Amino acid sequence: MTDAVQDGAGDSPASPAKGPGVAGGGAGATVGARIAGLMSGPFGRSLGLVIGLLVLCLIGVITAGDRFADFDNMMTILRLASVIGVISVGMTFVITGGGIDLSVGAIVALATVWATTVSTQTMAADIHWTVMVTTALAVGAGCGLVNGVLIAYGRMAPFIVTLAMLAGARGLAEVISGKKTQVIADRGLKDFFGGRVLGIPVLVIIFALVAAGGWVLLNRTAFGRRTLAVGGNPEAARLAGINVKRHTAMLYVLLGLACGVAAVMLMARTSAGTSTHGGFYELDAIAAVVIGGTLLSGGRGTIVGTVFGVLIFTTLTNVFTLNNLDSSTQAVAKGLIIVAAVLLQQRVAARNSTP
């Protein structure tokens, strides 16, 4: 008994020494797991986008010097990003909800043409230039409604419906305008949207407001939660009491409305409406959304990531332009970035699904 007690007493000092070591190891593992979880989540994705944007800016400074770092050039980048940025915010909702839209560029063109016809401009001259704004918004929302109804209630594939809208809207824009550029006579619209507030272009402010509103709508409202649910599992969302068809239609109306806003911004920037507006906007918007971290399969979306995606592509274009590089090389670079982003998404999804 004495030996046993002595053995136990001899072990006692070692026990406290082991305790802190185990606790310390557990705490370290917990902290490491938390950091890994943080970096694999929205914060990590946003940080990667910020680093990518900073690298592009560094390349711009090295290759173009003061021409790139100039304040006016920064405002030019933001102004060019604003139009496609507004569309990309709307596209984020549609893709998060499990859809896709290939017709946004054609809808923008149709909205600019319809809002700048002689009859519309005459009405605007008699009443107010906001008539043109209202017309553009109505055309965009109307096209989005057609897409949404056919997809949600007609049970047609989004790819087919929006591809048909792409052709139809672009063709209608050509018919209405006679393939001619319609110049805006009223200076009120151009002066308002082409102005600056504290040195910041109004177009950039509109983009910031749309992005902020989109973030609140997606992350802080029932509409956003329903969008995530519908995109993640439509059947489960239906069983949970969500009207999936109505919500899907509303997502396309929201994107159409964003196209209307973008059309107004484009009209103010170019002082014209034409059927050639919005070329390849659908590809740029989808690319920005994918680069930002929104899943193409739906169920996960990020407005912050979309904004950074737009800025990355616009900055890339600006760097190429300042260095007199051809558009073909730029297209190749964009394609490589998109492929890399999709591969990264697949890798992250596979890792998250592994038990």
Radius of gyration: 26 Å
What's the rounded overall pLDDT mean?
85
Structural class: mainly alpha
Q: Roughly how much helix do the residues carry, as a percent range?
A: over 70%
By DSSP, the count of extended strands is 4
Measured by DSSP, the beta-strand proportion falls in under 5%
Low-confidence stretches: 1-23
Strand order of the largest sheet: 1-4
Please, could you describe this protein's structure?
It is a single chain. The chain has 355 residues and is an all-alpha fold. It has helices at 2-11, 14-40, 42-64, 66-69, 71-96, 104-115, 118-126, 130-152, 158-177, 187-193, 202-219, 222-232, 234-239, 244-270, 281-292, 303-322, 327-353; strands spanning 182-183, 196-197, 200-201, 272-273.
Q: Which features characterize this protein?
A:
two-stranded antiparallel sheet; disordered N terminus; 2% strand; 355 residues; mainly alpha; globular
Short description:
By secondary structure, the protein is mainly alpha-helical. Helix content is 79%, strand content 2%.
Write the layout of secondary structure elements.
Elements: H1 2-11, H2 14-40, H3 42-64, H4 66-69, H5 71-96, H6 104-115, H7 118-126, H8 130-152, H9 158-177, E1 182-183, H10 187-193, E2 196-197, E3 200-201, H11 202-219, H12 222-232, H13 234-239, H14 244-270, E4 272-273, H15 281-292, H16 303-322, H17 327-353
Antiparallel strand pairs: 1-4, 2-3
